[in-house]
């Protein structure tokens, strides 16, 4: 390992050694809603994440930032269960969920949105949002075929709840019967948030919630995210490039670079961090760059 | 003039037929179906029964291919399974008619779920090939498991008995096939108003986000295969009672393509599409036959000359639909409805 990188790694290990017992202690008091430790993910010879660890405090907004290719979305995919990390643990309210499949994690209360909107194009806004309630509904195949009776009762209950809690909240009443494919980009993002909220999640993971939005749409989204946190008490973990938004609304920031955590803390602390500035703006020291390149080849 | 439909409860908003006009048309349709057997001759009743059987099977395939996005070319083979189950139950066990149909559906559903196992790993064309393979295996079984299936000679079935009545002629079978078709189509329509149906569509549209929402892919894909095969099995059972002889050649591979074409021509992922597609695919060849027959007074050898042309015209019609109306007949119907929505004030 080259010097620069080795230093980072050691620092992380040190923190983890201190951090792990803390995690155990925290879970008993219920402070960390989500805790990631020692997460390492390789794609063949490429190391996407190495020894990533951080805690997400319950009821907070935690932002993950970092340059392109830093491993933010890979980290999200590990947490929601699409990637199987080679090492490390993901704890959800103290319970190790590393071995669970995505649907099982959803059932526990982990919801997410995608960077490039993953709505169901063939359905209306309302049906998309109803799908968020899927795991909490009981209708089985036979009930569904018969419909009248149990299935109908449940459908109406869910409809009422979605209308009153989600659709009104996100101000999308006017488009509820529109097919998703006909909506503008900003509205689609909002519908995806609505679908995630319909899950009544404990933790909401947002992958670039305001990417590609104009100023007004960004402000709307920021307001919704804050309202979700405050009114619903949902813990939020988000990946975002819009530094203005990150600094304004997040309580805690984790900075990733080349698959490693290089800084974490309150927004103001992180922006002042030497390494973060270097990661974003580049370092003047050519020797360090050489060392880093040599390091990636060695890995 | 109607400008909208006022609903004051969520239940009313989620009804299948939500306007009075729709209910009126539905009632008229029901009356027409009831009156049809008294007005039609045996040939038309034969066609009506065949259309009913095809609607059941096409709706089944539509659940799998149109709604869940899993392309299957095994529908005819599944119908074959249902037909053999009915033939065996009727001749060997002598169990009642409706029970036999149910058994045909359930056995076929199980076969379908086994065939569906590869669907977790393979999609699209690859899955289509896997289902072709399964249908050839089933065909081989029909042909060579002589002790059970009677080999190439097949099995013959006595007429169905229901409430002491013998259902031998199309007139009698019509009264069984039509209600069963209506019930099964209605059940499918119902399903897509509930979480299970939505999960199927979710898998078709974006399987990754379906998983994130807590939909286990394998379970739902197998459920879709099972349900689709259940429909095929019941259709096959009705087919067996209708034609009363089941041989391996009754369910050729082309028949599977017939159903896939019906789903595409009718409109993938719409209940109405399954109905219209089955009607189109069954009746258009007959209509073309009729046209050729009408020409014979002027062209004495029209039947001999134009029969091959008939097949070409049928093929051209299908291609025409694919190019001009990729969303199928159901889309045309929707356009007609929109046109008359505010007619004659706005067209």
Automatic annotation (TrEMBL), chain A:
The organism's place on the tree of life at top rank: Bacteria
Region (Disordered): 1-20
One Gene Ontology cellular component: plasma membrane
Aminoacyl-tRNA synthetase is among the record's keywords: no
SUPFAM superfamilies: P-loop containing nucleoside triphosphate hydrolases (SSF52540)
GO MF annotation terms: ATP binding; ATP hydrolysis activity
Protein name, as recorded: Amino acid/amide ABC transporter ATP-binding protein 1 (HAAT family)
Taxonomic lineage from the root: Bacteria, Pseudomonadati, Pseudomonadota, Alphaproteobacteria, Hyphomicrobiales
UniProtKB/TrEMBL annotation, chain B:
Principal place of residence: membrane
Sequence intervals crossing the membrane: 20-38, 44-63, 70-89, 95-117, 124-142, 172-192, 222-242, 254-280, 287-306, 312-330
Record-given protein name: Amino acid/amide ABC transporter membrane protein 2 (HAAT family)
GO MF, any single term: branched-chain amino acid transmembrane transporter activity
Protein's UniProt keywords contain DNA-binding: no
One Pfam family named in its UniProt record: BPD_transp_2
A cellular component annotation (GO) from this entry: plasma membrane
CDD domains: TM_PBP1_LivM_like
Membrane topology note: Multi-pass membrane protein
Protein's cellular compartments: Cell membrane
UniProt keyword list: Cell membrane, Membrane, Transmembrane, Transmembrane helix
Keyword Protease: no
